[in-house]
Design goal:
Chain lengths: ~625, ~290, ~350
């Protein structure tokens, strides 16, 4: 905090113009993004950064977002519990180190010091490894344990600093006046240590509330914290609601700061502040009690899916019809889905893996059979999509949607007529190309670019890897979810992406054109599966059945822009969708389509190749 | 001369936190160490065994390059941020109380604001269709957006933006403790302003500087979010590599070996510093 | 009542307190005086129980308390920096000792009230230590110690943090208070005036050893060792040898400066080397030879310093030794005798003045 003594001087030190300039420019640089963010949170428009008029609409969106409230609740719950434990443990360690001299003291001190300077990611992965080994399911407990571990040392160091600076004559005075050692500890040492313990606790609390990296590795399905939600919002589709959430967080920060500052000014916890703190505590408690009761009544359903891959409106309708609260978390690709399930993330009821992944998940024992007898709408599914080789019995998966990866480009920016994947290697479009951030799709494109089939030949893979590495400087980046925004804003000219996104881009203007490359496209089929230990299996089955209802399927297809294998749904589709070649490609395309198959052992090589490409 | 009395019983207090650290800090690191010598299963998972393959792979040029890049990014970020942070801290420590307080508030707000929120706020400004480009194109100064985003520039902007408040504070608090009379004495004894700065002010700020450098360097080295969101295709850092090994490639042994290598790198850096300066540990914290 | 017998304290090879023996009576105001680092605080801390004696015994009213912990001794300390508990207000600070002894609430309240009034702290009971002046804090520290009615109160330079005016006034109050409560005080100080003014007896310490333990008057008038002579007040010291002792009259031959005679002195045997000590104010300068029972030495005036009530001369004896002489100015004015630098004079003094100290 600001020193209290002003040191303004007439020596002309610290008064240079350049110094002033650097200072104010930097402060402006620090603060202006936050201010602009706050301003934009009152923007009425749908775009994140174009002003369209004043509105508090996004605040009401945030306010009514149950998922977000859940995340806030989780954040506070985790922060409170971990702060209490970390403060107790940290203070204990400080007391032992400060009041008891023993041989290994320096060693213990160093072990305590290291956690404060170790990169967070190390905590994340090492704790993840531990939790998996001891079979602790990822969730509240794992996050809390992780938070305690990295904040405890800070508490110890803060309290120990105070203890080492403690005026020990106070202890002597107390002994001298007839108090025993324990009484002295109780009446003299502890009360005078309290401010340090409190600031340690405050520090631990902030660390916990703020933490993203460690939580990213140790969180489960139902325990997402606010930072994880924000991350997911940034990654999987930014809406102005994020501006509003951020503003609320900033306001919260400033208030807390002001409070802490006032506390410091008055040199302690004055009466008013005591009441304020108590009031805030009461509000938090009330919040917990209320949300607790609200939560208990409703059934829950946790989906783990690609972003924007189920119509939000449809989910709302499902929630209303069956009185269920649905939460959705997103994964980036099949690999992430598999990793998370392997890590022991539990709590998901329904996941959406691609065909080859269903086989892997099944083999790994990560999914369980679905009670198909309860699915009255199952007969609506096109039988050609059922009982494929990855799930011959058809009991582990229900087909959800299918599509392919192709290209789209902006005809205003690219005048050539594009027909081949080779366009993605075209020097003319340097820095204006996007590729998806998905191993299989990228590698497939590489294979086709070289005119190869995807097989298990390492030499071909080597060539493909080199071709893709050669391509990298031409790319803006590998991007899955924001492709539409980049294309529509004109920031990139050509993108390799999935047909659903292509459909959305096409509907944004005549200037966009889809290309189904002559070398052929990669076909994918996503399925609905129920993870083992899903807490709400029946609700998940209810949801599957709900989605397969032709009317619902049609509504869903309109939004996600991918085809669902529910033939009866076509009748309910508007013409624009029914006739869209991006959603229902013509037969000659389907003939050229390739379905990605599990490559078994060869997968390891593919993954290595993918890492190499990314790393270059 | 006065010594505190000992509480022998307090050694018992060491057991709960000690046990905790052992279980949740030491053991996990040991697990990672053991994994780094093990084999990967086809679909993820770890087969026990002993191989130096993963370390050999790291020593191979490609991954080593990532380490060097991360080190370089962290180093340059620390340097650039320092070039901004020191003048701010210096200016603040000599400013009037009012100015000092105002700047302090301006620094404390980003200091305590969630990292992701801050990064997102920066993205709205430097992003491809962010406000800077919107403004420049709207006023007709440029007709093509400037390449401000998804490249090395924006990665550094992100890192500097992130670290700046964390660096200013510790430096400021050591400078603020410097007694003005020392400066006056130095000037009085015939030293020039520059000499005074080099001989008095700078040495005095060393504890704060060290804290600032460690607090910027290490987290930057391990960050994977800024390269992910603000970087292009060639800004991949170790953090991204480790993360991808755990949450995508499911190559835990390789990820573990990378983590070990990272700890090694960071420890080298830190021990280099500790050779010059022994922190009381908490000192850097008190500055906050 | 407090008996300290061959008390010894060493830190490793460093012997800080050596063979200290003291008998302090009930109700006595006892002063420990000595240069910095001589071991005063260490003795106090051993009496209080903060420091373990290396050897020796401390007895309080006949009971051996050498190995008791501080809280089991009927001894309280007033700390140099007061060591008030910052988390308690004045009343709570004062009540601390009683509370620790589980004294009934009502009794605590009554006794706190009494002590607060005694210490002149009325109206300040609710103040926190940080909100008080040094002098007030000092009173609180005193009150906090006194309320326990200890048998011995140890005060380690209690006045050193106060400015001179307040210290002087507090000194008077402290003496007054001690008389009222009748508790034995052991008082450590650097300040000789303080010690001489307050104490019933003073122990002069040097290098861990007690050089002399006596009444203030005896300490001043009859220093027993060279250190004490040198340490207390101004003193002229001249090397010499006793040539004869007869009927309480000693003759001392000062090396190269002449002979002096000392009446009422029977301690040294003839032939011993001694130090002849005499205070500057006991001598006077004169142009006349000594007469009657006077000693006289020839000297040359080297410097003169007029300081208002007195004039300080530095004069040189024939052997080269410098002597300081302080003349009362009102006496000088009567005789109108001022001496100039370079003037040849006699230093005269009565044969009853001066002291012999063994070397
Ligand atoms: N813990 C210790 N370890 C080693 N030496 C010590 C220790 N405590 C005190 N001493 C030494 O013991 C000697 C006596 O110290 P003490 O505090 O008793 O002096 P003092 O007479 O009170 O001096 P002062 O008037 O300056 O307070 C000093 O030389 C000091 O350096
Ligand atoms: Mg002392």
């Amino acid at each position: 905090m600001a020193g209290n003594i002003s040191r303004s001087n007439d020596l002309g030190i610290g008064k240079g113009l350049l110094l002033k300039l650097v200072t104010y420019a930097s402060v402006l640089f620090l603060v202006s993004p936050l201010v602009i963010l706050i301003v934009l949170s009152f923007n009425s428009g749908r775009t994140v950064s174009v002003w369209e008029g004043f509105s508090t609409h996004w605040y009401s969106v945030v306010f009514h977002d149950a998922d977000l409230w859940g995340a806030i609740r989780n954040t506070f719950l985790i922060a409170i519990v971990s702060t209490v434990v970390a403060t107790i443990l940290g203070t204990m360690a400080a007391l032992a180190l400060g009041k008891y001299k023993f041989k290994g003291r320096t060693l213990v001190y160093n072990v305590l010091y290291i956690p404060t300077i170790l990169p967070e990611i190390i905590f994340g992965v090492s704790l993840l490894a531990l939790f998996l080994l001891i079979r602790l399911p990822l969730g509240y407990i794992s996050i809390i344990c992780a938070h305690i571990t990295f904040s405890m040392s800070f508490v110890t160091l803060i309290v120990l600093a105070k203890l080492n600076n403690f005026d020990h004559r106070l202890e002597e005075a107390s002994l001298d006046l007839g108090a025993g050692r324990w009484q002295t500890f109780r009446y003299v040492v502890l009360p005078n240590l309290a401010p340090a313990i409190l600031s340690g606790a405050l520090f631990a609390f902030t660390l916990s509330i703020d933490d993203f990296i460690v939580t990213f590795f140790t969180a489960g399905a139902t325990s997402a914290t606010l930072p994880l939600k924000i991350y997911s919002l940034i990654k999987f589709g930014v809406t102005p609601a994020l501006n509003a959430v951020s503003t609320v967080l900033i306001v919260f920060t400033v208030t807390a700061l002001a409070l802490a500052n006032a506390m410091q000014r008055t040199g302690g916890i004055s009466k008013i502040l005591k009441w304020t703190l108590a009031g805030m505590g009461a509000i938090v408690l009330l919040f917990f009690v209320v949300t607790f009761f609200f939560r208990q009544e409703k059934k829950q359903l946790y989906l783990y899916n690609y972003a924007e891959y189920v119509s939000a409106e449809l989910i709302e309708e499902f929630e209303r019809r069956y009185d269920v609260e649905v939460s959705v978390n997103y994964f980036n690709d099949n690999e992430e889905l598999l990793s998370r399930l392997q890590m022991g993330v539990e709590g998901y009821d329904l996941i959406f893996p691609t065909a080859h992944m269903v086989g892997i998940l099944k083999a790994q024992g990560l999914i369980q059979p679905i009670d198909t007898s309860s699915l009255t709408n199952l007969p609506q599914v096109d039988p050609r999509f059922r009982r494929l080789d990855f799930d011959p019995s058809g009991s582990y998966s229900v087909p959800y949607a299918y599509g392919f990866i192709a290209m789209v480009y902006n005809q205003d920016q690219i005048k050539d007529s594009i027909t081949s994947w080779r366009a993605l290697w075209d020097e003319k479009y340097r820095s204006n190309i996007l590729m998806v951030d998905d191993m299989n799709d990228v590698l497939f494109t590489g294979y086709r670019y070289l005119g190869y089939e995807m097989d298990k030949d390492p030499r071909k893979l080597q060539e493909v890897t080199e071709a893709l590495i050669r391509q990298k400087p031409l790319l803006l980046k590998y991007e899955n979810n924001m492709t539409r925004d980049y294309m529509v804003a004109g920031d990139v000219w050509i993108a390799q992406t999935w047909n659903g996104f292509i459909q959305q881009i096409l509907s944004a203007g005549e200037r966009f054109k889809m290309v189904i490359p002559e070398e052929g496209v990669l076909f994918f089929m996503d399925n609905m599966c129920i993870p083992k230990n899903a807490p709400n299996k029946e609700t998940a089955e209810l949801f599957i059945n709900f989605l397969l209802e032709p009317r619902n399927a049609a509504r869903n297809m309109e939004i996600i822009a991918y085809a669902m294998p529910v033939p009866a749904a076509r009748d309910f589709l508007p013409d624009s969708i029914r006739n869209s070649q991006a959603i229902f490609p013509p037969d000659n395309v389907i003939e050229h389509m390739t379905l990605f198959r599990d490559m078994g052992e060869f997968n390891t090589l593919l993954e290595e190749a993918w890492t190499r490409i990314k790393v270059r | 001369m006065f010594r505190s009395f000992k509480m022998r019983e307090f050694h018992l207090l060491l057991f709960p936190p000690g046990f905790w650290l052992l279980l949740f800090f030491v053991v996990p690191l040991v697990i990672v160490l053991v994994y780094s010598f093990a084999f990967k299963e086809t679909y993820g998972g770890v087969t026990p065994g002993f191989t130096l393959e993963h370390y050999r792979a790291i020593a191979e040029g490609m991954y080593l390059k990532i380490f060097l890049r991360s080190f370089g990014y962290a180093f340059l970020t620390t340097l650039f941020t320092l070039l901004l942070a020191f003048p701010i801290a210096y200016y603040m420590s000599f400013a009037s109380l009012r100015v000092k307080t105002i700047i302090m508030v301006m620094i404390m707000i980003p200091f305590w604001t969630n990292f992701l929120v801050r990064m997102y706020a920066l993205m709205t400004i430097v992003g491809e269709s962010g406000l800077i480009n919107q403004f420049l194109m709207g006023t007709g100064i440029i007709d093509q957006p400037l390449p401000l985003f998804n490249n090395t520039f924006s990665v550094f902007a992100g890192f500097i933006y992130w670290n700046l408040p964390f660096m200013v504070l510790p430096i400021f608090s050591s400078l603020d403790r410097l007694d003005t009379s020392l400066i006056e004495a130095s000037l009085d004894l015939g030293a020039s302003k520059m000499q005074t700065f080099l001989r008095v002010t700078l040495p005095y700020s060393v504890p704060g500087l060290i804290a600032a450098i460690i607090f910027a360097f290490v987290p930057t080295m391990g960050n994977f979010i800024i390269p992910e969101f603000m970087g292009g295709t060639d800004n991949y850092m170790i953090g991204n590599l480790i993360t991808s090994q755990f949450v995508q490639a499911r190559n835990w042994p390789f990820g573990s070996a990378l983590s070990m290598a990272m700890i090694f790198f960071v420890m080298i850096f830190i021990s280099l510093y500790l050779r010059f300066y022994k922190p009381s540990g908490s000192q850097s914290l008190q500055n906050i | 009542m407090l008996d300290i017998i061959s008390l010894h304290k060493s830190y490793g090879q460093n012997h800080v307190v050596r063979d200290v023996n003291l008998q302090i009576a009930k109700g006595e105001f006892f002063c420990l005086l000595g240069p910095s680092g001589c071991g005063k605080t260490t003795i106090l801390r051993m009496i209080a129980g903060f420091e373990k004696a290396t050897s020796g015994t401390i007895m309080l009213d006949g009971a051996d308390i050498t190995h008791l912990p501080p809280n089991k001794r009927d001894v309280n300390t007033m700390f140099q920096n007061y060591a008030l508990f910052p988390n308690f207000n004045v009343a709570e600070n004062i009540a601390y000792g009683l509370k620790m002894k589980k004294t009934p609430r009502q009794e605590i309240a009554d006794r706190v009230d009494k002590v607060v009034r005694l210490a002149g702290l009325s109206g300040l009971e609710e103040r926190m230590p940080a909100q008080m002046s040094g002098g007030q804090q000092q009173r609180v520290a005193l009150a906090r110690a006194l309320i326990n009615e200890p048998r011995v109160l140890l005060l380690d330079e209690p006045l050193s943090a106060l400015d001179k005016k307040i210290a002087e006034q507090t000194r008077i109050e402290l003496a007054e208070l001690q008389r009222q409560v009748g508790i034995t005080f052991i008082f450590v100080t650097h300040n000789q005036t303080e010690a001489l003014a307050l104490a019933d007896r003073i122990a002069i310490m040097n290098n861990g050893v007690i050089e002399q333990c006596d009444t203030p008057r005896n300490i001043y008038e009859h220093p027993r060792t060279r250190f004490v002579a040198d340490f207390i007040g101004n003193m002229n010291m001249l090397q010499g040898r006793v040539t004869s002792v007869a009927q309480g009259v000693a003759t001392v031959d000062l090396e190269g400066a002449g002979q002096v005679i000392l009446s009422q002195c029977d301690k040294p045997a003839a032939g011993t080397s001694v130090l002849f000590c005499i205070r500057p104010e006991r001598m006077k300068l004169s142009l006349l030879e000594p007469k009657g029972y006077e000693n006289g030495l020839r000297a040359t005036v080297k410097s003169k310093l007029y300081v208002g009530d007195t004039t300080h001369y530095q004069v040189q004896l024939q052997c080269g030794a410098m002597i300081k002489v302080i003349e009362q100015n009102y006496l000088l004015q009567l005789s109108n005798e001022f001496y100039d630098i370079g003037e040849e004079v006699f230093i005269n003094w009565s044969q009853t003045s001066g002291e012999l100290v063994h070397v």
